[in-house]
Amino acid sequence: MRRLWRLFHKHQAERRLDAELRFHVERRVAEYIAAGMNAEDAGKRARHELGGIEQMKQECREARKMHIVEDLVQDVRHGLRLLRKNPGFTVVAILTLALGIAANTLIFSVAYNVLLRPLPYPSPEKLVTLWESNPQQNTIQGQVSAANYYDWESDNSVFASTAAYSAWRFNLTDVAEPENVSGALVTPRFFSVLDVQASEGRTFRSDEDQSGKEEEVVVSQSLWNRVFGSAARLSGQTLTLNRSVFTVVGIMPPDFAYPSRKTELWVPLSLSAENKQNRDGRWLTVVARMKSGVTSQEVTADLNVIAARLRAGYPKANANVDIRVVGLHEYLVGETRTTIVVLLGAVGLLLILACANVASLIFARGSGRAGEFAVRYAIGAARGRIIRQLLAESALLVAIGAVVGILLGFWGAQSVRLLGIESIPRIQNVAINVPVIAFTLCVSLFVTAIVGLLPAFRATSSESLKEGTNRLASNPAIQRRRAVLVGAQIGLAFVLLVGAGLLTGSFLRLTRVNPGFQVDNRLSFNLSLPRSKYATNLQQNAFFVQMLDKINQQPGVLDSGGVSDLPLLGNRMGFKLILERADTSGAQTTAEAGARWATPGYFHAIGMLLRKGRLFSSQDGADTLPVAVINQSTADRFWAGHEAIGMRIRLEEDPRWFTVVGIVDDIKQGALDSEEGPTVYFPYAQKSEVWLNWMAVVVHSSLPPRGLVTSMREQVRSLDKDQPITEVATLEEHLADLEALPKLRMTVMGSFSLLAFCLSMIGVFGMISYSVAQRSHEIGIRMAIGAQAGDILLQFLGQGIRCVLWGLMAGICGALLLTRVLKSLLFGVDPVDVTTFALVAAVLFAVALAACWLPARRATRIDPIVALRYE
After folding, report:
1. 3-class DSSP state of 178
2. Element (H or E) spanning 284, and its range?
3. Of 680, 696, 719, which residue constitutes the final position of a domain?
4. Would residue 634 count as lying in a domain?
5. Cis-peptide, bond into residue 259, ω within 30° of zero
6. Is residue 777 domain-shared with residue 855, that is, in the same domain?
7. Whole-angstrom Cα distance, residue 695 to residue 562?
8. Which of 479, 401, 507, 486 is nearest to 445 (CA)?
9. How far is the CA of 94 from the CAs of 41, 101, 346, in angstroms?
10. Can you say how many angstroms the Cα of residue 471 is from the centroid of all Cα atoms in its chain?
C-alpha cells in the first residue's frame, strides 16, 4: 500500500526521501564532529562515504519495486513530447497504421460474422443439407424429389431428424394493404431439426402435414408486429393466405431467419399420397441433424447405400443420382468464402506493408538519434532501458493508430450493412463486437512487435551506439536494411495491384457481356394468383390477358409481357422433353431442358432478338395448334445441321406435341458468367399446368420506369382488389445486384492496392530523401573534391532503382501464387495475364523512378560549404 501511495504521491515521496537522506548525512557529520573533525571536513567525508546523493536516490527508488511503472509513465510522457515535436512523422505514421488496422478490423468483422461465427442453432456442427447430384447432367447440388426425400427419411440410420422445405410466396389479404409475403412450405419436423422453439405459441406437430387438417401457420416476429401489433394476443388470430384462412399457432424469435432472412411465415407441407410418390419433380431442399457420435464418413456410407438402392429400384428417375452431403454452414456461405479469404489475404498484406513503412520511418528516425543513444549509454543507461523507451514510443503510435482504426472500422461496418449485399449471407450482422476488438488487439500487438522491436534492437546495437549519426547513415549495412524494407513494400504493392488489375479486368468483361436482352427503361414485378380463386388455366390466363391489355393502354408504355421465370434471378425450371428427330423419320429422343411459359408480348418487352421464324401471337390460344419457341442452344444441340423450325417437341407429362415456330437468342438466365443451355418457351395461354399460377411481368416504357409503379399497382387492383404485386424493380437494378459481388471484390481490392501503391511510393521517396539528408556531409566532401552532379544523381537513382527491381521480382513471385487463389473469381481473364503484369510493373517502376529522381536531384544541389559547416 505504501508503494502504491508513493506511485500516486510522487512529490511527497521525493520530499520524504530527501529528508531521510539528509538525516543520514547529518547524523554522520555529527559523529565526525564529535570525534574532533571540523564541520567542513566532516561534511565532505560523510558525503564521500554515503556516495552520490542522486545515485543513492535511484537505488532507493529501485528498492521500492515500483520504478518500472514510474519509468513507463515517464517513457509515455517522453513519447508524447516527441510525437508533438515531430508532427509530420506522427501524422504519417498514425494514419498509415490506422488505415492498415481499420482494413483488417473491417474485413475480419465480415469474415467472423459470415465464416467463423456459428449458426444460431444448438449444436450447429451437426446440421447438414442433402442434395441430389448427377455428374452426367452436370448437377452437383440439385434439389430433391418428394418420393426420394421420404425414402431418405425412412431408410437412413444416421440422422436424428430430417426435414424438407421449399420457398413459397403467399398473397396476404384481408389486411389494410394486401401484400405478397415470402414464406416456406416445410415438413413438420423443420423446426425440431434446427432445434428452435417459438418465442410465443408453438411450432408444428408431427401429424400436421396430413390432408384434412386445419390450416395453420407460424409467423415471424416482424410479420406479427406489422399485421397485428406487438401488443396483440396470439390466441384466435388468423391470416388469409392465398384466399385460405390460416390459424396462427406460433411466433418465431426475432433473430430466426431460415431459409432466408426474407422469410416471414412457415406453412406445413401437405402432399397427397400421389405427390409423395413423385420422383420426377425435384423442388425440395433437405436439411438434417446428425445423431450424436455419428461421423461424416458414416453419414456418407449410409447415404451411398440408400442411393444405390434407389438407383436399382427406380432406374428411370434415379439413374446416375447420388446423395451429396453439405454442412449447413458451408451451404449458406457458398462461394463467398473464397471472396472473403482473398480479401483477408489482401488486408493482411496491406497491414504488413504499413508496418514496413512505419518501421522504415522509425529506423530512419532511430539512426538520426544515434548520438543521443550513445550519450545515454555512455553515462550509464542500460540497453534494456533504452529499448523499453523506444518500445513505449512505438506502442504509443500503435495505440493511437488502433483507436483511430477501430473508429474507422465502426464506420466501415455501418457502411457494409447499408449496402445490403444479398449475395453475402449474414452481412446484416456485421459489427465491431468483442471478438473483432480482441482480434484488433492481437493485430496491434503484432504491429507493435514489428514496428517497435526491430528498430529498437537495431538502434541500441553496439554498432549503432559506437557510430555517429552521419557515419551510421552512410553505413552500407544500414542502407541495405532500408532497401530491403522498401523493396518488400514494392513487392507487396505489386501483388495487390496485380490482384486488383485482374479483378478489374474480370469485372469489366462481365459488364460487357451481352445478356441477350435489353435492360434500359424496363420495369419488372411479380404476381401470384391464388388457386382458390383462379382454379383453372382459363381463369388464370384471362386475368393476365386483361391485366396486360390495361398496362399497354397506360401513357408511356411501349410493350409489356409476362414470363414464368424472369432472367437474371437464377430461376430455371428443368423438365424432361421428348423431341422429334430430324435425321430419322418418326424417331424420338428424351432430353432435359429449361422450360418457360410466356405471353406474346414478352419477347418485344424484354428486347430479345428473333433469329428465325416467328414469335407467339394472340392467336396462339388453348384451342389452336400448340407451338413453341426455342433458343439457339436447343437448335444447335438437338437439331445440329438440320432445320429446327417445324420440328416437334413435348413435355414428358404432357401428351400434346408443340411445333417449333421460332428461334431466339440465348440469354443469361442465372448469371452473366454462365451459359443458359437448351431452353424452350411455351405460350402461357396453352399451358396445362394449373399450378403455374404466377407470372413475372416486364414493362418497357419511354418514361422513367420507377414512375410507373403506382400505375401498375392500380391496374392490377382494378381487376382484383386483393391482388398484390411484389418484387418490383427495374431490370437495371436486377443486373446491378448480379454484379454486386464482383464489383465489391474489385472495389475493395482496388482501394487496398491503391493505398499500398501510395505507401510504397512514400517509402521509396522517404528512403532516398532521408539518405540524401543524412549523407549531405559526405556529398559535400565529394563535391568539394571534384565529384560531378551527374555522378551524385546516378548514385542515388541507382540505389533506388536496385531496390525497386528487387521488389518487383519478389512481387512477381508473390503474384503468381496469388493468381491460384483468384482463378475461381475471374471471368474471361487469364490468371497469369501478361498485359496486367507488365502494366503494373511499368507503372510501379515509372512512379518509383520519379520518387527516386526528386530527392536525388536535390542531392546534386547541395552547397559543399553549407554541408561542411556543421562538422
Report:
1. coil
2. strand 282-290
3. 719
4. yes
5. yes
6. yes
7. 6
8. 401
9. 58, 10, 20
10. 50
Flag whether 72 is in a domain: no
In this structure, are strands 322-327 and 127-134 parallel, antiparallel, or unpaired? Answer: antiparallel
Residue 828 has φ and ψ, to the nearest 5°, of 70, 15
Q: What are phi and psi of 245, to 5 degrees?
A: -90, 125
The secondary element (H helix, E strand) that includes residue 216 is: strand 216-219
Strands 679-683 and 588-598, sheet pairing: parallel
Residue 424, φ and ψ in degrees, nearest 5 = -105, 115
Spatial separation of the C-alpha atoms in residues 836 and 814, rounded to whole Å: 14
Whether 715 and 736 map to the same domain: the answer is no
Query: Containing domain of residue 19, as a range?
Result: 2-65
Alpha-carbon gap, residue 544 to 696, rounded angstroms = 11
Determine the residue type at 359.
A
Same domain, 502 and 603: no
The Cα 242–Cα 532 span in angstroms is: 7
What are the helix (H) ranges across 608-708?
632-638
Domain assignment present for residue 358? The answer is no
**The domain boundary residue, chosen from 278, 309, 333:** 333
The Cα–Cα gap between 660 and 613 comes to 9
178 and 55 both lie in a single domain: no
Closest of 599, 552, 558 to residue 715, by C-alpha: 552
**Alpha-helical segments (H) within 420-475:** 434-448, 454-459, 462-466, 469-473
Angle at 287 between CA 285 and CA 292, to 5 degrees: 165
Pair 172, 239: CB distance under 8 Å:
yes
The whole-number pLDDT of residue 469 equals 46
The owner of cell 540505389 is 799
| Neighbour tally for 112: CB within 10 Å | 18
Question: 756 and 678 in one domain?
Answer: no
Q: Do residues 167 and 202 both lie within one domain?
A: yes
pLDDT tens column, 481-513: 667 777 888 888 888 889 888 888 888 888 888
pTM above 0.85, yes or no: no
The Cα 829–Cα 505 span in angstroms is 7
What is the per-residue pLDDT across 656-704, written as a single tens digit (0 to 9) for each? 999 999 999 999 887 787 788 899 999 999 998 888 889 999 999 999 9
| Nearest residue to 638 via CA among 571, 572, 578 | 578
Nearest to 460 by CA among 364, 396, 377: 377
Round to whole Å and give the CA distance between 777 and 271: 92
Contacts of 681 by beta carbon, 8 Å cutoff, 6+ apart: 563, 596, 597, 598, 616, 628, 629, 630, 631, 664
- Within 10 A of 608 (CB to CB), how many other CB atoms are there? 23
Residue 562's φ and ψ, nearest 5 degrees, are -130, 155
Residue with cell string 399485421: 227
Does 22 lie in the same domain as 142?
Answer: no
Question: Quick one: cell of 581?
Answer: 428427330
φ/ψ of 593, rounded to 5, equals -155, 165
* Amino acid identity, position 215: E
- Gyration radius from the chain CA atoms: 38
Q: How far, in Å, CA of 598 to CA of 85, rounded?
A: 74
pLDDT for residue 55 is more than 70 = no
Non-local (6+) Cβ contacts of 211 within 8 A are 270, 272
Helix, strand counts (H, E) of the chain: 30, 23
Distances (CA, A) of 649 to 291, 578, 638, 871: 47, 6, 11, 97
- Same domain? 300 vs 162: yes
CA–CA gap between residue 450 and residue 439 (Å, rounded):
17
Distance, in Å, from the CA atom of 182 to the CA atom of 223, rounded to the nearest integer, reads 10
> Judging by beta carbons within 10 Å of its beta carbon (0-12, 13-18, 19+), is residue 91 exposed, middle or buried?
exposed
Q: Which residues contact 769 (CB under 8 A, 6 or more apart)?
A: 854, 855, 858
pLDDT in tens, 707-747: 999 999 999 999 998 899 988 999 998 888 888 778 888 88
Residue 556 lies inside a defined structural domain of this protein = yes
How many domains in the chain? 4
Q: Which of 721, 718, 714 is nearest to 555 (CA)?
A: 714
